[in-house]
Amino acid sequence: MTSSVSSSPISSPNLLKSKTYSKPYRIEIGIIVLFLCLTIPSLIVLSLIYRRQTLPSSPSSTFDDNFHQISLINYPNARCMDNSIASYYVRLANNRHSRWLIYFDGGWFCYSKDSCDFRRQFSPDLITTKNINQKKFFSGILASFKQYNILYAPYCSSDLWSGSSNLTHSHGYDIFHAIFRQENYLQHAKQILFVGFSAGGLGLLLNLPDLFPKFSSHIDLRVIIDSAWFFDYSDNPNGISKINQGMIYWNTQISSSCQLESRYKCLLGSEAIKLFPSSVKILIIQSLFDLTQLYLDKINLNAYDFSLKLRDNLRQSSHRISIFAPSCP
Fold first, then answer.
1. CATH number for position 310
2. How many of the other CB atoms lie within 10 Å of CB of 10?
3. Which of the residues 5, 99, 155, 292 has an alpha carbon 20 to 30 A from that of 17?
4. Domain that holds residue 218
C-alpha cells in the first residue's frame, strides 16, 4: 500500500527567521522613501526661492523686464516733497501698441508747514518716488490694460499736482509737465487714456487744458477722473478754506484758460471740464458718499444732504460726461 504524503511544505527554522525580518525591512525602506519624497521637493523649492532673492536685478528695470524707471533729473524743479528728483515709470507693450494708459496717482495733500511735517513723519511713502508698490502694476485698473503701453506717475508732491514752490518743496505742476517734455513716447499714439485717482484726478482737471493743445487732433483722447469730483458745498466752507490755504502754500499754477475770480473753482469738476475740448471723452467715477470730501468738509450728520447735492452737481454736467456714481463710501 502506498502511503499518502501531505503536499504542504514544512517551514524550516531558517525560512521562518527570514519571514520574521522581512516586514521590518519593508517598513524601514518605506520610511526612507517617504523622508526623501518630503525632503527633496522642499530643498528644491527653498533653493529656487534663495536663487530668486539673490539674483541681481537689472539697473534700468524696477519691476520686470518691461517696466522702467525714468528720472526727471534734467528738470531741476521736478522734485518730490523730500527734495529728491521725481521719477515716473513706463511699460511698453510687447507689440509696441499705439494705445497708451497714463495714470496719475493720488493720496490726499498737505496745506501748511505743520500738516506737511506731519505727512513727512507718518506718510513717508507719499513724499518720494523711490519706493513703489509693485502690485499696483498687476492689479486693479492697470491689469485690464495689458495690451496698452503704460505710463505711471507716482504722487510725491502733496499739492494736488498743482504747485511750483522751492520754499515748500511743492512741485506737482513742474513734475506733471516735465513728464511730457522728457521723452516723445506719444508720437505714434492713436489713443491716449488719462486716468487720475483722487489727487491725481484733480491734477488732470487742472493741468490737462494746457496739455491738450500739444496733441494731434487725430489722437483719440479720453479721460477717467476717479474720486476727484469736488463741488462747492456752501453749507460747510471748511474744505474750501483748506484748499485755498494750500493753493497759496504750494504756489499753485492755474491754467490761463481758467478766468474764474475765485481760483479754487478751477479745481471743481463742473468748472474744469468746461476747458476740455468737446472731442475728449470723459468718465467720472465718484462715490456719492466720498469719505475724503466728507472728512475734508467735516460732514457727519449732513452726509445725506451732501450726497444729494453732489448727485445734482454731477447731473448738471451729464450732457458732457459719463458717470458712475455708487452710493457707498
1. 3.40.50
2. 6
3. 5
4. 67-324
Strand order in the sheet with 322-324: 67-71, 87-91, 149-153, 99-104, 191-197, 220-226, 281-285, 322-324
Task: Tell me the pTM.
Answer: 0.78
Cell representation of residue 281:
471723452
Helix 199-211 × helix 172-182 angle, to 10°: 50
pLDDT digits (tens, 9 = 90+) for 129-145: 987 765 666 666 667 88
Same-domain check for residues 264 and 133: yes
H or E element in which residue 247 lies: helix 238-250
Phi, psi of 295 (to 5 degrees): -70, -45
Evaluated on CA atoms 155, 160, 162, 163, the torsion sign reads negative
Within 13 Å of residue 218, how many CA atoms lie on the same side as its CB? Answer: 6
Whether 100 and 191 have beta carbons less than 8 Å apart is answered as yes
Position 107, amino acid: G
Percent of the chain with pLDDT over 90: 59
